[in-house]
Structures are given as C-alpha cells and as structure tokens.
Design a protein that fits this description.
five-stranded parallel β-sheet, 2 domains, about 300 residues, FAD/NAD(P)-binding domain, alpha/beta, single chain
C-alpha cells in the first residue's frame, strides 16, 4: 500500500463509495479503507425498490459492485484494511492500519453503524444458533419454522416480510402500539397472513442451550410475562454509530452520532463525515449516497484552498 494520499475514506459502504467516486473524479489520490465487505450492510438486504433511477427492484450487492467499479474507473484504490487510529500531525492526517501508518491531507469518515443488541440473557450465547441480525443471510435456515422479528422500523418490517417467504409463522414483536416504518411496508405487513403483530411487548431474554427454544416476552401494559416457543429470532432494533475513532475529536450527541451542518465538515480541519455516523440519517441508501457526494465536494473545496 502506498504511504501518502490526498484523501483517505474510512468506510466502504454507499456513503464512502459515493464520496470516493467524486474524489477520484476530481483527480485526487484517494484510498478507501473497508474492514469488512465493500458495500456495507446493505448488501445483505434482499432488494432495493426505492433507489431513484431504477424502475424495477435492484439487488443491493449488484448496485454496490457497480459503485466499486466506478470508483476504480476514476483511479480510486479500494483496500480491505481497518483504520485503527486517526490523529492529526501538522498539516497531515496519520492513519494507523494493520502493520503500517499512512497519511492523507483530508479524511472522509463514513464508517457506518453496527447492529444494536438488547443486552439480555443468552442473546450473545445464542447468536448464530437461532438468534440473528440478518434475515437475508439466515432466512433459508428457517423454512417452515416459527420465527420472531424484534423491532418496529423499516428494517424490522422488511425483515418480517422477507422471512414470511420461508417461515411458517412470523411474530413481529414491537414495544410500542404503532409502527414508525414506511406506510407501504406497514400495509404489506398487515395484509400478510403469515405475520402476527405482538404490540406493546419487549423481550426479556432468550431460552435455549445449544439453540434457541423460546423468548421471554413481557407485555408492557399488563406486566404479564410468558415464554413463547420460536425456532428463530431476528433483531432489528436499530444501530450504534461507529464513531469510536473520532469521539474525542468532535462533539457527538448522546447516542454517539455526529452533529454537523449541510456541508458535512467537522470542527476539525480536514475531517469530513458522511453516512450513518451522522445524526438524522434515516438508513436509506439514497441519503447516504447524497451525503457521500456532499462530503466529497466539501473536501475538494478544502483541498483546493490549500493549493
């Protein structure tokens, strides 16, 4: 890997790749660091049907592959490596990766978010043994089985609809008495005969030794608690922003998200943000792509001002 770059982008999801396309097109020497899979979490989704410009549903992995190829066409380097530490020295940013340190004149931080967990008994122990965070990944394992989905947002309802293609019964467990998901998703869920909605309820724990056997569920209004048998449970209760590397540099809100203006600049010189690390991002590919473009344009203005 080369040592010196104009721009290093931390994160290779939709925001990071979109930013890279614009940085590369501006003839900036650009590196994208992605510790997992280029394309981010969206590649594990079933389809995208609301991305502008596509009249038919598209496969997320295909869209992200095209964005990656577009990056490379503009001379961007895509590297599977993890940024372990960011720090500014003089006019440069130093980025520690595995077994090396590289430099950049600017950083675009688009590290995304991680799945949120309940923190209840047996959750981690049964992860991968009936407890899952990805319906698209694991749904085929639950053919003709009883499964539960925990959550009430777009992700939860989309997961429930996808699981209904495989499972014999899907229970959608939500702690409130109404969903916050898109209306079209709500309509599809209400019409699906395989999906049962469990309102005003929370999961207190997971039961099972070698695999998931049941959920301990409490009704928040009545206080009644019961164990219900399930073969699978899918967590769709939100995310935690991956802002650990920059948390001591800039102000974050109480949940760890970056607060910024429309320019996506931060209070630190040469540091820009994009995607799901930003407060208010609705976890839509189109939004993250737009943020990536805006951060790249702001970054280019900054680099041009130095010349």
């Amino acid at each position: 890997m080369e040592k010196n770059w104009d721009v290093i982008i931390v994160g290779g999801g939709p925001a990071g790749l979109a930013a890279a396309i614009y940085c590369g097109r501006a003839l900036r020497k650009t590196l994208v660091l992605e510790k997992k899979v280029f394309g981010g979490q969206i590649i594990f989704a079933d389809i995208i049907e609301n991305y502008p410009g596509f009249s038919e549903p598209i496969v997320p992995a295909d869209l992200m592959e095209q964005m990656s190829k577009q990056c490379e066409r503009f001379g961007v380097t895509l590297e599977n490596d993890e940024a372990l530490r960011l720090h500014r020295e003089g006019d440069l940013w130093r980025v520690d990766v595995y077994q090396d340190t590289i430099t950049a004149r600017a950083i675009i931080y688009a590290a995304g978010s991680a799945h949120r967990f309940l923190g209840v008994s047996n959750e981690q122990e049964l992860l991968g043994r009936g407890v899952s965070v990805c319906a698209t990944c694991d749904a085929p394992f639950f053919q003709d089985r009883r499964v539960a989905v925990l959550g009430g947002g777009d992700t939860a309802l989309s997961e429930a609809l996808y699981l209904a293609k495989f499972a014999s019964e899907v229970s959608l467990i939500h702690r409130r008495d109404q969903f916050r998901a898109e209306k079209i998703l709500q309509q599809r869920v209400f019409k699906n005969e395989k999906i049962t909605i469990v309102w005003d309820s929370e999961v207190l724990g997971f039961k099972g030794s070698q695999k998931l056997e049941a959920l301990e569920i409490r009704n928040k209004k009545s206080g009644h608690t019961e164990f219900k048998a399930f073969d699978g449970a899918f967590l769709a209760i939100g995310t935690i922003p991956n802002t650990g590397l920059i948390k001591n540099m800039i102000n974050l809100d109480e949940n760890g998200y970056v607060e910024t203006d429309i320019s996506l600049r931060t209070s630190v010189q040469g540091l820009f943000v994009a995607g799901e690390v930003i407060k208010g991002n609705r976890r839509q590919v189109a939004i993250s792509v737009g943020m990536g473009v805006q951060s790249a344009l702001s970054c280019e203005e900054y680099l041009a001002s130095l010349e």
